């Protein structure tokens, strides 16, 4: 009779594990955890030609399908919120309901909100900048600043959820959502709060943002929606811009047990480090990501040999994938973990990406099911040593899983999850 491997939950830093008791998702694969998980497991690319981007060098995007703030958000004036805030509110409500919590009855001063975003309400900003140019100052909406200011999505969540604990915005570019989750764990470790609703949101599919990324050479120029986003593929040429949000409910594991909550997984380690190398290019040796990984694995009381799955940053850009694949090949030179990237299916959801991918990593741990990397057909030479999940989802037990995030400015955050 085979003895199952021992669970990994002995944090080296002495912090108790954090329970993930609720998940909420709004992504290009669908609105809600169910549609998103189904779409990612199926490996369905969501890229499509976007009429808003007509005439730009790149016309593909990964949009959230069928999102209607009147139906998915409600209220008297859902239009007053930027699209990124709308996504965050929808995802947060799902997460809180999933956790079995009642925001009208909880100890509001002990509830924290931490929300990451790379660009805040940039869609509202672009729209009103055009109004100013063409119609004059008197036509500019008085809701512009509440919709645009980067911190306002977190503030609106606090209002909606009746949360009066720490309410913070994180901005580490495309690592913003993961950074918010790390900071939430630290607040829980230090008893600054008892419940944290944390994650990321962004809605950067705008003409100005897309033009800027295109001018940098960061976006795929492929005209084939099924193959434009293909992380770790030899023919990759950039990412497809996406949008969405993910919010997780985090609690100390002992508190979750005390109220008979059933965690999806445990956050058992985290790490963060900076490349200090270049404004937008990753360090070729993934220096910062490697250090963040070392911290996260050590904090989990584990070694690289204990890691069974990695949800990579995996953007589909040549330098980013090259650096990350090289790091993973060096770290896991024995029996490699399964490796995937959600960006093949969802595109790059910017500041929401780290939180969306953390949620998918939690679901992988919970279900023992690793999603495939959509669009990946011919692995690049530097990724050849990786155990890439392609084609169909792979079922296998997961003792410890890592979720990698990186962002412009050299920001890197790695989160480690284990079964409860």
Topology:
Elements (H helix, E strand, L loop, with lengths): L17 E10 L2 E2 L1 H10 L5 E2 L10 E2 L7 H4 L10 H16 L12 E6 L5 H14 L8 H5 L3 H10 L5 E4 L5 H14 L5 E9 L3 H10 L26 E10 H6 L6 E10 L12 H13 L9 E3 L6 H14 L6 E3 L2 H4 L6 H15 L1 E2 L16 E2 L5 E2 L5 E7 L3 E8 L2
Helix pairs in contact: 3-6, 7-13
Question: Explain this structure to me?
Answer:
With 420 residues, the protein is an alpha/beta fold. It folds into 2 domains: 18-258, 3-Layer(aba) Sandwich (Peroxisomal Thiolase, Chain A, domain 1); 268-418, Peroxisomal Thiolase, Chain A, domain 1, CATH 3.40.47.10. It has 13 helices and 16 strands. Strands 1, 2, 5, 6, 7, 8, 9, 10, 11, 13, 15 and 16 form a 12-stranded mixed beta sheet that branches. A hairpin with a 3-residue loop joins strand 15 (401-407) and strand 16 (411-418). Helix 3 packs parallel to helix 6 (152-161) and helix 7 crosses helix 13 (353-367). The radius of gyration is 20 Å and the shape is globular. The model is unreliable at 1-6 (pLDDT under 50).
Please tell me the overall pLDDT: 95
Q: Spans of 5+ residues with little confidence (pLDDT < 50)? A: 1-6
Tally of helical segments: 13
Radius of gyration: 20 Å
